[in-house]
Structure formats: C-alpha cells, structure tokens
C-alpha cells in the first residue's frame, strides 16, 4: 500500500514538474548530460558579405578652432566602392553547403564572476578572404545622413555628388586587398562578455600567412585634392612554415573607447612599400629639375619587422 502511494506520487510529480523543468536555465553540467555536449555550436556558411556604404557621422565637426579657423559643421567619413559598386568580402575556398565560420557559445560561473564565451574559427577549407576595391570619403554637412533621412555620396549615374572628396583608396579591380591564412594554424577569435578572465574582451590566436602576398602587393593611395601619395603594400610572414602569429593580440572596449594591442613581442613579417609615387605620375614643372617628369621613387622594405606591447586607443569624434 505504501509502495503504491509512493509510485503514484512520483508519476504525478514527473507529469506536472516536467514542463516547469524544461523552462529552467541549464548550466554546463546539465546541458552536457542532456545533449551530450557543452554549450552551443553554430556553423555559418556563406561565400561573401556585401554592403554598399557605411558611414561615421560627426554632427558638430571639430570642437576647437585650428589656427584661428572654425570647423564646426557636421561631416561624415564614408566607406564605399570607388565607382559606386558594392563592397564585397569574399571567403576564399568556400564550398556550397559547408560552413565558413564556426562558433561555439558557452557560459561559465567563474567562481562568482560569470561570463559568456564565444569562440570563433574559420572552417578548414577557408584559405583566406579578400575585399573588393574600396575607398574612404569625407562628406560635407549637406551630404551626410541624419536621423530622418538617408543620403548616398553617389547619384543615380554612380558619380560623386558635390561636397564629397576621396581621401583614401585601397585595392584595384585586378589586385584586391587579400589576407591569406596559415593552413596549419588558422586564426581564432575568442570573445568574453560579462567578465573577462582571459584579460581582454577579444583575444586572437592562430596565424596568417600574408597580406596582399601576390605580385607587388595591393595599391593604396592617400588623396588630397588632385594629387596623391600611393604605393603597393605587401606583408609576408618571415617564418613561412608557422606564419605570422596572432597570439598575444587583443581588442576590447574600455571607458576611454576602443583599444587594440598586443602583449609582448610579436612574431615577424617582411613588409614592402613598392612602386612609391608622390604626386601625379608624369607631372612636371619647367622650373623644377629642368622639367623632369615625376615618376616612381622605387620600393622600400623591412625584413623581420615586429611590434612589442602595441596599444592603440580609438575614441569618439
């Protein structure tokens, strides 16, 4: 009789309690025993990311006068394709139906300082990624978007509208900005939110093999008016077997803004600035060097370049 009552009570508790238990948060141990794994794994498959324009808008310009002149009007920094075409980030080696990026999301109590951990890695078949040509523009107060209206720096004919000037251009149609991954140590990104026992919000790992590693590199031009300073940029890991290690590099958000840096001394890279040109190619003046036409200054490079305890802070406009 007693056994029968206990059995009936157990059935009642299970039937009523099960829906309530399913709504409770699961810790790692419970999740592991329920699903056979810790955390959540997500595979994202895509061959490219595409966007038209992105902008940072400064609504009050430069706060203090510079050399007695006031520059307090609104303006914007705009990233866009140099001819109005969309900017594409293409993942090299992607195959249809497979993952491009894998993410594992987990949580930990942290002995009273809980945190969420997001680990991001590239799939094995991904060899690198490249960006189509893009440029950085400065747009005047009449051409920046507001809270009620969105504007483009290009008109319907894909021509720059008045009040917009190009200040930086990266890549060309046949020489895209490209990063090649080290195949034995693919880059990893570990993000921690809530608390950061790893010391930084974002910690990098793995290695890359090169930046613009083919030919003479990727063209980069700093533009001012109708003239520019341009060169082909290239960087290759000095250690071709292990690549340029990203271990020790980190990023995050601090009260002073966004920071990027590394701890200790990094591994080494061979860096080249090829086909350096200052001014407009072919330009000349009859009073300077007897009318000699302007041309390339040649190439400059550094072997075994590294950084130590780098820290870069970026705060608001």
| Beta-strand content estimate | 35-45%
Alpha carbon gap, first and last residue:
78 Å
The rounded Rg comes to 27 Å
Count of discrete structural domains: 2
Mean model confidence by pLDDT? 83
* Total count of helical runs of at least 4 residues: 2
Shape: globular
Tell me which oligomeric state these chains represent: single chain
Structural class comes to: mainly beta
Count of beta strands: 22
The low-confidence runs, each spanning 5 or more residues with pLDDT under 50, are 1-24, 30-37
Mind describing the biggest β-sheet? 14 strands, antiparallel
Give the proportion of residues in helices: under 10%
- Order of secondary-structure elements: HHEEEEEEEEEEEEEEEEEEEEEE
Keywords:
14-stranded antiparallel beta sheet; globular; 2 domains; eight-stranded antiparallel beta sheet; 317 residues; 2 helices; disordered N terminus; 9% helix; mainly beta
């Amino acid at each position: 009789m007693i056994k029968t009552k206990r059995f009936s009570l157990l059935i009642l508790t299970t039937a009523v309690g099960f829906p309530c238990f399913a709504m409770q948060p699961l810790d790692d141990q419970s999740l592991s025993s329920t699903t056979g794994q810790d955390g959540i794994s997500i595979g994202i498959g895509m061959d490219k990311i595409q966007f038209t324009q992105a902008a940072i808008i400064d609504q009050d310009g430069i706060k203090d006068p510079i050399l007695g002149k006031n520059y307090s009007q609104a303006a914007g920094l705009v990233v866009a394709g140099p001819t109005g075409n969309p900017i594409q980030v293409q993942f090299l080696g992607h195959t249809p139906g497979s993952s491009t990026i894998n993410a594992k999301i987990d949580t930990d109590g942290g002995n009273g300082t809980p945190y969420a951990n997001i680990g991001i890695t590239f799939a094995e078949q991904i060899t690198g990624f490249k960006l189509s040509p893009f440029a950085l523009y400065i747009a005047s107060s009449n051409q920046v978007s507001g809270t009620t209206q969105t504007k483009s720096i290009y008109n319907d004919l894909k021509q720059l509208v008045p009040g917009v000037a190009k200040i930086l251009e990266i890549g060309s149609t046949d020489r895209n900005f490209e990063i090649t991954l080290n195949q034995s140590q693919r880059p990893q990104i570990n993000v921690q939110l809530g608390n950061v026992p790893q010391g930084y919000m974002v910690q990098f790992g793995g290695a890359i093999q090169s930046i613009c590693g083919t030919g003479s590199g990727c063209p980069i031009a700093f533009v001012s008016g109708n003239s520019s300073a341009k060169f082909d940029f290239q960087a290759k890991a000095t250690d071709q077997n292990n690549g340029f290690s990203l271990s020790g590099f980190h990023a995050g958000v601090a009260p002073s803004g966004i920071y990027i840096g590394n701890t200790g001394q990094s591994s080494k890279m061979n860096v080249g600035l090829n086909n350096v040109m200052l001014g407009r190619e072919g330009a000349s003046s009859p009073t300077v060097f007897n009318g000699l036409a302007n041309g390339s200054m040649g190439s400059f490079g550094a072997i075994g370049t590294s950084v130590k305890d780098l820290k870069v802070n970026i705060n608001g406009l």
